[in-house]
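Weekly modeling sync, notes
Attendees: S.R. (lead), two postdocs, one rotation student

Agenda item 3: backlog of single-chain predictions. S.R. asked that every request posted to the team notebook include the full sequence so nobody has to chase files. The rotation student volunteered to paste the first one in as an example of the format we agreed on. Action items at the bottom.

Example entry:
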Amino acid sequence: VVLLNEKQQQRGSTTTSESGLFNLTGVQHNRFTLLITAISYHKKELDGQSIPDTIWLAPAVEGLREVTVSSRKKLVESRPGMLVYHAANDATNKGGTAADVLRKAPVLNVDAQGNVSMRGSKNLKILVNGKYSGQMARNAADALNMMPADIIQSVEVITTPSARYDAEGAAGVINIITKKGRKEFSGALEAAGSNLEQVLNPRIAINQEKWNIAINGHLHRYRTKEAVNTNRQQLKDGIPDGELIQQQESDNAAPHGSGDLSITFKPDSVSEFNFGVNTWFGKWPHNRQQQTIVKQAGGVISDQYLQTTSAKENYLGADLNLGYTRKFKRPGQELNLLVQFSPSHSRSPYQTWLTEDQHTLPIYEEINSNKTRNREWTAQTDYQHPILDEDRMTLETGMKLILRNVNNQYSTLSGNSQDPSGLLPDPLRTDQFKYSQDVYSAYALLKNNFKNDWYLEGGLRVERTAIKGRFSSGLRFNNDFTNFIPNITVSKKLNGEHHLSLSYTQRLTRPYIWDLNPNIDASDPRNHYSGNPDLEPETMHQAELVYGWNRGTKFFLNSSLFWKQTDDAIVDYTQTNAEGISSTKKQNLAGNKMYGLNFSSNAMINSWLSLNGNFNVNHLEFTSQALHIYNDGWAADIDLNATIKLGNRFSVQAFGEYTTRMITLQGH
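Predicted structure, as returned to the notebook:
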């Protein structure tokens, strides 16, 4: 059943139930036509002024004998400022994880561990159904490996986020849309096993007239085995002045899991309430053994020891959200309200022992305790209002409030447990760090659909940030700042297959708690890592020119020429002292510029083979006036997915990627 307006343009469609009942919304007046079709019957058109309660269709003279339909639903769709990968249309996504789904999405690169990058940058904002996810913010790779692929409806890859989205996420935004149950009752139990991981995913969905309930679970055991060899050479006036050689081995198995509950209630055709709970838990061990050799100038060995480290992160977190959507009489006029609470806590202690190369008694021992509790509140409202009919012009506006509070306690015991004095507290590495970050924002966005297939979008977002921090030792700091974030997009459909788009936006990266936490991780005595409470946010300007070619289900190509400039960039800065001990922390010490090319393609070669892949090449240059450092270079990455259908409902998938070295402020 298709609803047509007076210009014979489609305004809605549906199918009937087995008894012939159907329901269509969006009817404003009686100036419409109903077009009804059914196999083996003549089609029927009814004027909106005279529609009977019962509609009869006349049988066709010849009934349908046999029809074979072979087709492939569209996988990738281009929209202004974003690309949409319709994961539900790809039958080969069954059995995997969200990381496997994102590997097939355009523009993105996903490594073997599940770390996602876009055009060479991992500074991404990942949303689930348009909402903040504390699980993704904690560890995106972990969260993606815990989300079953089969619950994903689509993935929106937003390369140029509009003013509607938070300014955070300098590289872009990824929005994962999950499925809603359509059957009255459905369920699944999915299991997967391999030499490195075992997975169990139970799912249940209930769909009644006004209620839609979905429950998803995920239990996962993931084993990682790694061998890492590191060689660091110190130079003095260009001459080798010392060398650090380290060989590390690790073998860890991490049990973890997550659960989701989603409830949607529609009391009528214009209102919708939704409630969701997502919780995650796990234990991630980081146990390892490391052999260290320290050489002085001339190759003389000055120190040699074996180090054993036992570390484990225990975490538990949740997102609880309540939303309301109200549609008005005018098509496209809509109000959305959302309140979300995200509590979480984690413990990440470590204990390390140093022994001489040929002895088992420790010569040094250290125990570090680190506890973090996080509370985050979000409240937002979004409203969209059509200014002109037929979606020619739409105004979107809204406000948002984010309140983040973090409490971190850390302490350190160090010494030689074989000595009478034993392990003693280190007062310089023992403290309590309390941190709050409040963000107040508002935006306005105007979308225009012009004649001749032109599209123009412009918006402005204002964000006010208030940061406060204090230590139990008495040290305090605070920082307040306001950012104006504009965006503009112009696109043109050249014809049914080709389009061009030009976009500009600004982005913002605020330091996270793990970037600010001054607790020193000295589990490797030669390489120390810590946060920096003095970090300032970084701002980024981004522009891109996009050419898209979409031949329906057969072929898709998205090519983009992009440019980025980052001010007050947050970079890892490493210093090495006279004893050869390096200390790394994040600093606002440089700006950087990046420009490059990105190609994403999806092609159905024939009925049994399809390919998709991404290729990215970029030039990155760092400039630090404070350090008198300039460093630049080229980088590239490429990935390719192949799916082969074998018949009898079997298929084989192959995936591979290659990444070159990455340019950093101090090297590569």
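Discussion: group reviewed the output briefly. The radius of gyration is 28 Å.
Action items: rotation student to repeat for the remaining queue; S.R. to check formatting next week.
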